[in-house]
Amino acid sequence: MHTVLLCAVPILWAAITDFKKRIIPDWIWIAILLTGGISAFLLKTPYPPLFERVMGFLLPGLCLFFLAAKFGGVGGGDIKLTAAMGFCFGLYSLAVILFIALLPACIYAKATKQKSVPLAVFLSIGFFTYAVALLIYELICC
Length: 142
Fold this sequence. Notes:
Structural class: mainly alpha
């Protein structure tokens, strides 16, 4: 849970700057990636396992990269942010975050008639929903 809390401020800042300026500063994904690295290598946090972190880094990042190269509409900051979150939280947690982010992103795109959306805003919605659910789960089960 400590990893999730440490990433809350950078993810919120990414959402604000992406919404206002359509840019995600590099320090944000670097901070999230470093948090994941510290969690994995220095704190030896057992979850998520290193393989899941690496897959969380590679698969979504590569998918978004190829999507951006083929169709456009996905910025480099979005790709780096998603990859860093994948390493920090692991592939399965990132999949949950992305799934939660999908509906509000589609509603926003439809309502504003935009093909490009500020992805960090919706990643933060998915992240905070996931974080609250994780907190509730830990309070109930532990």
